[in-house]
Design brief:
Elements: E1 7-8, H1 15-18, E2 20-21, E3 24-25, E4 30-32, H2 37-50, E5 54-57, E6 73-76, E7 83-87, E8 90-94, H3 99-107, E9 111-112, H4 123-129, H5 136-139, E10 146-152, E11 158-162, H6 167-173, E12 182-189, E13 191-192, E14 195-203, H7 208-220, E15 226-233, E16 242-249, E17 266-275, H8 276-279, E18 289-298, H9 303-314, E19 318-324, H10 328-331, E20 346-355, H11 360-374, H12 390-396, H13 399-412
Parallel strand pairs: 4-6, 5-6
Antiparallel strand pairs: 1-4, 2-3, 7-8, 8-12, 9-13, 10-11, 10-12, 14-16, 14-17, 15-16, 15-19, 18-20, 19-20
The structure holds flavin-adenine dinucleotide (FAD).
Length: about 425
């Protein structure tokens, strides 16, 4: 099959848009927009036949711009974005769909999947990394709700992966971060969710160690219905500095919110009942700054971690997000999926904002500050990883998980056709 009818090349009117993602521009030789699994197979075969490197693009949010490539082939899946309700609350979502439109469509049927927080993030990109969303403690990661996937392999075959079909591939897709083939459709178990109580409580920026400690202790005994993220934000652009607790309660019983109000001095609160699809937001526009981003999964959010977080924040110029985990997320057997860091109590993400002309010394300094937090974790999350050193890759999967992923990669992608990702070398 020729790929000319789905190709956008340099010089074409649409090339500028086709070479631009949320994470930046590149100079691909061709961007292909397949509309069927056959066209995806032809696209892979084109790249292989020409000996060109390949990038697979869904939402285009990967911080290292993995959905884009210089002098290679991009397969952009945006034409495969359908959402279909199958019955028994199972849903099939195209490999090019993004969460905002998918959540809006599911909302029409009184359904939701715990996803991420951002409208334009890709369903397939986020799910293959993990999927930390606003109902994580009630319904687990997005990948915990995946029932099956349709995949076009490096060899151009269309296969289905589920607990009973190509079970090894199914295991690897759930946490393997996009190494195994082009996922053209995902089938999920959605949940009957109409509305949630969502919003924020803002606290005075005082005694931050006590504030974080109070939040951790409250979340340790909170019901699974409650998922929260505590953000320490520096003054940035139009936003003043603040300690903001983002709250999502997937229940009508609001008593779980009460203890949160006494962890610090409340200066503002805005929590209301909203359709799930409406709590997803668009991410911030690209800033003229270079963020040095780190994330880590900590097993115990103890005083030493708390102190590292507040000290780093008080140095200034960085935001810290703390996502409390537990609940359904923690009850999944660590070997059940390729996302194995189930013993983590929390995920901490920090970005230090630096001017574009920051020197390497400035960046080294920012990384040193991050290390005071990051070195206390048991691993990290592919979705928020902004660098790809061997140490970064090693932190994504415990050794036994990585060994198993490697063996599965040898079966499904022995030539490493899919290598523009946090790469598992076969
Ligand atoms: C503003 C913002 C908010 C975020 N919020 C959250 C959040 O709340 N929770 C969370 O867990 N994560 C979150 N993330 C992280 C996000 O999950 C990851 O960056 C994710 O990989 C992005 O997926 P994408 O499809 O948008 O990106 P892309 O860059 O298109 O893809 C990411 C990776 O997946 C591969 N890939 C994508 N689609 C396919 C496919 N169909 N088949 C095979 N491989 C594929 C790509 O090749 C690439 O390696 C956020 C990121 C940003 C930038």
């Amino acid at each position: 099959m020729t790929i000319d009818h789905i190709a956008v090349r340099p010089g074409d009117a649409d090339y500028e848009a086709a070479r631009t993602t949320k994470s930046g521009t590149a100079n691909p030789s061709v961007v292909l927009f397949p509309t069927s699994t056959d066209e995806v197979a032809a696209s892979i075969s084109h790249a292989r036949a020409e000996g060109l490197p390949l990038a697979i693009r869904n939402g285009g949010h990967n911080a290292l711009n993995f959905g884009n490539i210089d002098d290679g082939v991009v397969i952009d899946l945006s034409k495969l974005a359908g959402v279909e309700v199958l019955g028994d609350d199972r849903v099939r979502i195209g490999g090019g769909a993004t969460w905002g439109p998918a959540a809006a469509e599911l909302g029409e049927h009184g359904l939701a999947i715990s996803s991420g927080d951002t409208i334009s993030v890709g369903v397939a990109g986020l799910t293959q990394a993990g999927g930390f969303g606003w109902m994580l403690r009630k319904h687990g990661l997005a990948l915990d709700n995946l029932l099956a996937a349709e995949v076009v392999t490096a060899a151009g075959e269309v296969v289905r992966a589920s607990a009973t079909e190509n079970a090894d591939l199914f295991w690897a897709l759930r946490g393997g971060a996009g190494n195994f083939g082009v996922v053209t459709a995902l089938e999920f178990q959605a949940q009957p969710v109409a509305t949630v109580r969502y919003g924020m409580i803002e606290f005075a920026l005082e005694d931050l160690d006590q504030l974080v400690k109070g939040w951790v202790e409250t979340m340790r005994v909170a019901p699974d219905d409650l998922t929260t993220t505590l953000a320490l934000r520096p003054a940035f652009g139009p936003f003043p500095a603040g300690a903001i607790l983002f709250v999502c309660l997937a229940s009508d019983d609001t008593s779980a919110l009460e203890p949160l109000r006494s962890i610090g001095t409340v200066v503002a609160e805005d929590i209301g009942e909203r359709p799930y699809a409406e709590i997803l937001e668009e991410g911030p526009p690209p800033q003229p700054v270079l963020p040095v981003v780190g994330n880590t999964l900590v097993e115990s959010f103890d005083e030493s971690v708390i102190h590292a977080v507040t000290t780093a924040y008080e140095l200034g110029g960085r935001v810290v997000f703390m996502r409390y985990l537990g609940g359904t997320f923690a009850r999944v057997d660590p070997s059940a999926t390729a996302f194995a860091h189930r013993s983590a109590e929390a995920m901490i993400i920090s970005a230090a904002f630096m001017p574009e002309d920051a020197t390497e010394d400035d960046r080294v300094e920012a990384r040193k500050v991050w290390a005071t937090i990051g070195d206390q974790g048991i691993g990290s999350y592919a979705g928020f990883l902004g660098s790809e050193t061997p140490e970064d890759i090693a932190a994504l999967w415990p050794p036994a998980t990585l060994d198993r992923l490697r063996r599965i990669k040898q079966v499904w992608d022995p030539d490493n056709t899919f290598r523009r990702n946090f790469n598992i070398v076969p």
